[in-house]
């Protein structure tokens, strides 16, 4: 999502620079020194600085005065697709006539500032920043200033901030992801256990009222009932679709650096936070499910708002990605008294850091009413802190978290880690879950 | 072995590496040079100006070197117009001690060098070390600087031609011109926004 062009304030003021005053002072001093000493060679040293400070013109515009208006500065978010992990924009500079140089300092949150000095003509400078973060992102801030001839005059800096951008999460290709064993509907990509229209043969059965004539198997009928007293039909399993609800625990957004967990320090833009990992994981699962024709819904634990109801299709996938990108905590989320409602027979994917007991309670509540749950652990690989108190606090927090995860696993909840190197193995882990389910319930339908 | 080292490196990075530099915003400009190059050129030109003026005098070489060293270090640590103009004044003072009175021809190249020092001082104070300075931007002001230096050299050439002669009215004219310049400068630089 990109906002409109942000115009810069053009009401800047031009002033004589301190350098010009220093040049004048030095020139007069050296010239006076030479005259008092009767030394033309000494006085000559002051001529050029004096002339440079006093003359506001240039070849071609000998009597040109100081620029009259401020520099127009605007940042246009580019509509062209940038490389993955990059945000681009174009900085447009339109200086006043008489401007000799333009100095632009470009900053962005989590980035080192870059500066550029260009000639005082109308310019368009492409800007690029790298980030692995997703969701609403503040991007470029530009301070631009024009300088008159010889730097003798300077413009007040013009500041422009680019509109916030919404970075959608990318998705990783997943082959198989767990779906509920009990499927719903009469159409879909899966084969259900009910009789109906489908491709998978169930049995051959004597014709009964309600059977379609085109389902009569004439060969079987001829073999079993040569006098055609009984007709036989081929019965198939019906098709069905699976429903999944992606529940993103956006109540905390923590990075690998423990020092930023208090919310005071800036989080790095080249390291994904837990919420970025949750968005990426959820987008990957949603992509796999939608590609298979299943229905996907989204709920956010960090916000009290209407969840995105399950639906299928590419257009719905865009809605899912936007909902994931916008999932972020608003204020301090209150404790939920009951688990978010999910459709009957839906599988629940919970993306959480498991830093408190609430995910545990939610998983138990869902499982108690028969929903299968897959817990995706989105805590990034945490860097140890040098400070002893932080190290101790992390040891306690990690021990509690590990204990929760062990309890989940003991209760039969599959836990898939999505951070660091484990992310590459997550696809295999999800596929292994599906295969294991197929093995243990051979004959029962339940996995794609 | 290699895998073990990679694991050790990853563990170390995960555990202790917290002070990595932040990524940089990229600004695409034309052919450019870093601001650091201008700063280096400024420091060198300051040293060259003071030393070149110093060798024209009969002062003790050590004193000249100390003076040049102080100004050069200042220019390196805090580049800007202040060390540039101080270097220019120091060069003028050193030139007073030149034995080639009343006009030392070295002033004909010291004057352009002094102007270059003041311009580089401006650049050094405005372009940070990591800033990209487009060559086109440098060329943009080159013609104007050339005119300023040419006028100064013309004045210098005339002064050299007249040096050694008793031209009292010319001194009076110089004093009047200096006063006029000072008045113009004060009037124009009244601190008000334009």
Can you describe this structure?
The complex is a heterodimer of chains A (448) and B (194). Chain A has 448 residues and is an alpha+beta fold. Chain A has 3 domains: 6-16 and 67-167, Immunoglobulin-like, CATH 2.60.40.10; 195-240, no CATH class; 243-440, Rossmann fold, CATH 3.40.50. In chain A, 28% of the residues lie in helices and 25% in strands. Chain A is built from 8 helices and 21 strands. In chain A, strands 18-17-16-19-20-21 form a 6-stranded mixed beta sheet, sandwiched between helices. Chain A has a 4-stranded antiparallel beta sheet with strand order 1-3-4-7, with no helix packed on it. Chain A has a 4-stranded antiparallel beta sheet with strand order 6-5-9-11, with no helix packed on it. In chain A, helix 7 (388-410) links the parallel strand 20 and strand 21 (415-417). In chain A, helix 1 packs antiparallel against helix 2. The model of chain A is unreliable at 1-6 and 444-448 (pLDDT under 50). Chain B is mostly helical. Chain B has a domain at 29-130 and 148-163. Chain B is 70% helix and 4% strand. Chain B contains 8 helices and 3 strands, in the order H-E-E-H-H-H-H-E-H-H-H. Chain B has helices spanning 2-16, 35-54, 61-77, 81-96, 107-126, 135-140, 142-162, 168-188, and strands at 26-27, 32-34, 132-134. In chain B, helix 3 packs antiparallel against helix 4 (81-96). The termini of chain B are far apart. The mean pLDDT of chain B is 84. Chains A and B meet through strand 2, helix 1, helix 2, strand 5 and strand 6 of A and helix 1, strand 1, helix 4, helix 5 and strand 3 of B.
